[in-house]
Design brief:
The chain is an alpha+beta fold. About 45% of the residues lie in helices and about 20% in strands. The longest helix is centred in the N-terminal third of the chain and has 19 residues.
Length: about 425
């Protein structure tokens, strides 16, 4: 990241367009990100609508946008998360043509009864495929226990019932509501000629009517800033088509941030806290391994998006009941405190900063991270400094508020 130069390209699109320039790269990566995701189910927007819209925006009257990217030597993709939708490409050369294709993708919707119906069939197959996966079913069950009255408990793709409600008219309404400058970020990373790109974009705006229509939308759409909270269901035991028992422990963290940038601080605090408490260097992890309660399937994931914050700890195990008892005793009785030392913190901090900087050598990580951080008012080169300034006392205080029985749920999955 030391060679990274971050510059604004143009203000004429009415949303941020920034380049993370590193002369050492030959490739260019670009991502257009929208602050609209799976949890934003307002005004009769059905579950799965953001994901469905992501798929259908590639459809154009005479071609598919992925084909146009390929014509210019680019690999393209898209994804939907709980709070974001993103469209991206990477290429060597033809940057201007591929940026034009990316902007065309997000500014020129083409929805018909035929292509919507066809997409419903495709996504229904995708939903059925995931429904047969033990890890997916385990996670969905756990999320429903943590957030049983919130859209985050539903799969990002929705359900067969919910996507059946999607029509061309509904997609158009959602698109016009959420695909607006206030909700958009465009980031490029790698080899970028900023001057040429600015000139190209300024010319493109004057000749592209669809792009002009998009950048003239001035509304600030409503997004879901925090979950609908209800009491957590403490435990569920389920049976599924799997060869071995699985366990997932979910931890819900209640947030009251002064601003969105505070959520990035919380994300980093939680990452370090769980690494200290559960990471491979912890004495607890080594004891669980030596006792045969966990293996290399053991892991954790921290999710912080807008006002949502939770952690999922999971593994395959031969004795899930015993593992639940040991985990609860460790967390609720405060036996993790010995792991939260200044010496341990210094090691984990150093490793985390190194891993973060190393990950930015990958253009997709660099641009995606920078675009998402932008929505929180944080610049990507601020994160190592943020990590370096964390204090072990902060983590001790956070642990006491997080590791409570009322914040936990356990899902045990046994083979059928």
């Amino acid at each position: 990241m030391n060679n990274l130069e971050v510059i604004d390209i143009t203000k004429k699109l009415n949303f941020p367009v920034r380049a993370l320039i590193n002369p050492q790269f030959n490739q260019t990566y670009a991502i257009a990100m929208v602050d609209f995701g799976a949890v934003d189910t307002f005004n009769k927007v059905p579950a799965g609508a953001a994901h469905f819209l992501e798929h259908k925006l590639f459809a154009k009257p005479q071609f598919d946008s992925s084909q146009r990217f390929a014509q210019y030597g680019a690999e393209s993709n898209a994804f939907t998360s709980y709070t974001k939708t993103a469209y991206l490409f990477k290429s060597i050369g033809h940057v201007q043509e591929n940026i034009a294709t990316l902007l065309d993708l997000i500014s020129r919707p083409f929805f018909t009864l035929e292509n919507v119906h066809r997409e419903q069939e495709i996504i229904a197959q995708e939903i059925n495929m995931y429904a047969d996966m033990p890890d997916w079913f385990l996670e969905q069950t756990t999320l429903k226990s943590l957030f049983n009255q919130d859209p985050i408990a539903q799969d990002i793709a929705g359900s067969i019932e919910s996507i059946s409600k999607i029509t061309p008219e509904l997609l158009t309404d959602i698109y016009q509501e959420y695909y607006v400058p206030a909700n958009l970020r465009l980031y490029l990373a790698g080899k970028v000629d900023a001057t040429l790109l600015e000139q190209y974009l300024d010319n493109l705006i004057t000749t592209n009517n669809d792009l002009q229509t998009l950048i003239q939308r001035h509304q600030k759409p409503k997004v879901r800033l925090a979950p609908e909270l209800a009491p957590i269901r403490p435990q569920q035991v389920i049976h599924f088509k799997t060869h071995r028992a699985h366990l997932m422990v979910g931890i819900r963290i209640t947030t009251s941030p002064k601003n969105l940038s505070a959520m990035i601080l919380l994300q980093n605090q939680l990452d370090l806290l769980l690494e200290l408490v559960f990471g491979e260097m912890s004495e607890f992890h080594q004891k669980l391994t030596n006792d045969g309660l966990i293996d290399d399937s053991f892991g954790y994931n921290v999710i912080v998006e807008r006002g949502y914050a939770f952690a999922l700890i999971s593994c395959e195990t031969d004795d899930p009941t015993r593992l639940v008892q040991v985990l609860e005793d460790y967390l609720l009785a405060g036996k993790y405190q010995s792991e939260l030392s200044s010496a341990n913190m210094a090691v984990i901090q150093r490793d985390s900063i190194g891993s973060y900087i190393f990950a930015q050598d990958y253009l997709d990580n660099l641009a995606t991270e920078a675009a998402e951080l932008d929505f929180y008012g944080v610049k990507i080169n601020q994160v190592p400094h943020l990590l370096d300034n964390l204090q072990v006392e902060e983590l001790r205080t956070l642990a006491q508020s997080v590791f409570k029985g009322t914040n936990l749920t356990k899902t045990i999955m046994y083979p059928e």
